[in-house]
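Thread: Protein phosphatase methylesterase 1, structure

OP (GT): Posting the sequence first so everyone is looking at the same thing. Length is 394 residues per the record. Can we get the C-alpha cells written out before standup tomorrow? I want them in the notebook alongside the other entries.
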Amino acid sequence: MSDLFRQSVNTQPPPPQSQNLRPKPTPIPTQGRSSAEYDDYSSSSDSSASSAASVATVRPSSREHEAPPTHWTNYFEQELFLERRDGEQVGKYHVYLTPPTNLKKGPLFICHHGAGASGMSFAMFAQEIRKKSPEAGILSLEARAHGSIVTNASSGEAIVDFSLDALVADAVAMIQLTAEKQSWTTLPPIVLIGHSLGGAIMTTIASTHFKIFGSSLIGYCVIDVVEGSAIEALSHMKTYLSSRPSIFSSVDDAITWHVRSRTIRDQRSAEASVPSLLVSSPTGKGKYIWKTDLMSTSPWWDQWFQGMSQKFLTGRGAKLLILAGTDRLDKELMIGQMQGKFQLTVIPEAGHFVQEDVPEKTANLLSEFFKRNDRSQMVLPPKVSDLIAQGKKV
C-alpha cells in the first residue's frame, strides 16, 4: 500500500493536450450527484418507495446505442440505485451488478474499492472473471462520498462520518438491499473482495457480520493492504494528496496522469475507472476535479486499519491476501502464514491497484480460490455405518 504514496509524491501533471487519439470518454452520469440530483434521477424510474424498506432502479445494458468506451455496460449487466432509511439517516446507495447464472452454485464476488476509488475499480476484473468463469456474478459496491450518499432525513445534508463502523454498515446494507431487489431468497456462494480500505471493510464484515451470509460465505480476499504498513503509509497521505493535480482540463488528461504516474499501470483499466473518479468543476470551462474529497476523511484514517490483522486471521471462511510486493507482513500475519491460516500471493509487477494493473491474473487467482474452497463441490467418502446398512462389506 505504501508504494502508492512513494511513487506519487514526485509525479508531475500531464501536459495540457493528451496524445491519446481515442474518442474522449464520457464520465458516468450517476457519479458525484448531490442528494437532490440523486432524488431527481431516481424519481423518474418505475420503482416504488417504502420508508423502511428499499428502493432500487435497475438500468440494464442499452441495446439501442453503442456505449462509449468507459461506460459501465461494458463490464456489468446492471446499475442499481438502492435506498434505505434508518432512523434519521437516509442511505442512497449505488452499485454495479452482474448476477450469477445459477444462485445455488454461484459464485458471487462482492467487491469494495479503496479510498478515493469507485466501483469501476473492479471493472476490468469483472470482465476478466466472466471470461474465466462465465457463470460467476460480480457485485461492486460504492462507499458514501464515492458514488453513494448518506444524508440526514430532516435537513437533507450529507452526514460526514467515515468511521469504519459507518462504512461497514453501508456495505452490509448494499448487500442486503441488492439481495432484496433481486428477490434472492437465499444468497449464492459468496467471496468478499476488498482493496485497500475496502480490505479493512470486508475483513470486518467477515469477522463480525458473517451471520448475514449464513452458510453462503466461502471466504474473503484482501488486496494490497497490511495493518502495519497501511498505518505507516497514512503519515504520507497528506503529502500525496497535496502533490497530485487538483484539476484536469479533460478526462483524457486525468487518464494520462494516472498511467504516467503509474498510479494505474494498465491503460485499459485507467480508461475504465478514471472517468468515474471525476466530476465537472463548479467553475465550468470544461474542467474536472476529484469527486471524493479524501482530506475530509482524515479524522478516521488511523481507525480504519487498527486491529485488521487479528480480524483477518479470525474471520469466517477461507482467506487470501494478495500483495504487490511492497508491504511487509506484520508479526501476526507472519505467524498466521507459517501456520497455514491463509493463502498469500505476491504480484511484484503490480502497483497498489493490483486488480486494475493485472486484472486477468487477479481474476484467475480469485476463480481458483473459489473453486478450491467451495464446499458444495466437495464429495465426501460414504460413512462406514451407511455402507453396513446397505449390506456392503467394509
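GT: Both are above now. Quick notes for whoever picks this up: Confidence is low (pLDDT under 50) at residues 2-69. The radius of gyration is 21 Å.
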